[in-house]
Amino acid sequence: MAITDINAYAHLTPADIETLGAELDAIRRDVEQSLGDRDAKYIRRTIRAQRILEAAGRATLFASRKRSAWLLGTAMLSVAKIIENMELGHNISHGQWDWMNDPEIHSTTWEWDMTGTSGQWKRAHNYSHHTYTNVLGKDEDLGFGILRMTRDEQWKPLHLVQPLANLVLAATFEWGIALHDLSAEKLQTGVSPWQVFSEPNKAFARKAGRQVAKDFVLYPLLTGPAWKQTLKANATANLIRNLWAYAVIFCGHFPDGAEKFTEEHFADETRAEWYLRQMLGSANFQAGPAMAFMSGNLCYQIEHHLFPDIPSNRYPEIAARVRQLCDKYDLPYTTGSLGKQYLLAFRTIHKLALPDRFLRRTADDAPETSSERKFAALSRVSLPTADQWAENHWPGIDPRTGHRRGLRSAMAEAKVALREKARQEKQALREARQALQDKAREEQQLLRRKALRERAIWRMRRRQRQAN
């Protein structure tokens, strides 16, 4: 099941966690105090470059009856839509640039180039997801309501089709997110889902209508004879943007190591424990400067979840300090290549489409679902609580090396223990098989000896009859 006692899972004392929280607060203060002209120039250059790129792409599509022009225009438009969605719309709506007090680049005024409204997305994402990250029953983004991404969610026959649902979601990601955010807003505001003409529905319909009219009516008509090619180009650009946004989001939230938490843990959570939950519940993927920019710097998903309202161009420098803290407290820093992280998420989607009886690992030590119970065999108590930690669990410092022994060391030992357990189980299976074979061999020998005795007796009796 999901993590209930984050102290026990992280192998940190409450004092350790509070100190970690203070160090993360210090990182926030340092970055906030250093924000200035360099950052303002960065976001304004990004906005200007995105708009130029989009305008150039749309202008090129006037000649899109030529294949080369169609390819070039579609490529420029796709990149422009990705930048607007990831580095601009997502991050501006998080309030990352509100400190500039620029009414154009402000979370309260920016409307992104997506089907759903920024307002509905902010209520569902900024509040629900970033407050309750991976808390079961609280975080609506955990599977987006259609995918089973943890064994803590009870399996239903409908989950058998989630591999197909995943493909549909990837291709129509902006619509999936928009409908998800619309549903979340209705839930938060108490609006009945059956109330057709509710304010959330009206806001969604207005925004979706504008988007459809812009991409599939207005711009195609403007290009005159090339309207069919422009229509295809807009649809292709939207598809590419959807697939990229989907991949970035799934790589940051659903690979192995992005842990889940119970409501019991959240009930008494401190600010420092919130930080720790963000670190354990998120995952990064490795990216160079270009890919990082195209992902809206969400390749630094851990840093984004720690500081969602800090400008994204600062995440690389923050990441270096967060890594140092992970080393200091012996915590995992979950990262990997984009391909690896997505394949892990993809495997989870397909694996959890099946009922639990077809899965080998338990709900406490599966790659996609883990809890403090996985370490029970390594501790001197079965399930340590935070108060029992210092006395009964791992020592904070390894006396042999002088280094802290935390979650990373515990996971390494758990992996060794799991391999040893598997080896012992295989050995026990071999021994049991050998015992069965030996028993069968003994039974065969007994039967053979019995048959020989019976044959000897039969022969002896036959000779006696012949003698008589």
UniProtKB/TrEMBL annotation:
Matches recorded under CDD domains: Delta6-FADS-like
Coiled coil segments of this chain: 407-449
Entry keyword set: Coiled coil
GO cellular component: membrane
Record domain Fatty acid desaturase: where: 69-335
Pfam family, one: FA_desaturase
GO molecular function, one term: oxidoreductase activity, acting on paired donors, with oxidation of a pair of donors resulting in the reduction of molecular oxygen to two molecules of water
InterPro entries xref list: FA_desaturase_dom, Fatty_acid_desaturase
GO biological process, one term: lipid biosynthetic process
UniProt cross-references to PANTHER family, sorted A to Z: DELTA(5) FATTY ACID DESATURASE C-RELATED, FATTY ACID DESATURASE 2
Protein name: Acyl-CoA desaturase
The organism's taxonomic lineage, starting at the top: Bacteria, Bacillati, Actinomycetota, Actinomycetes, Mycobacteriales
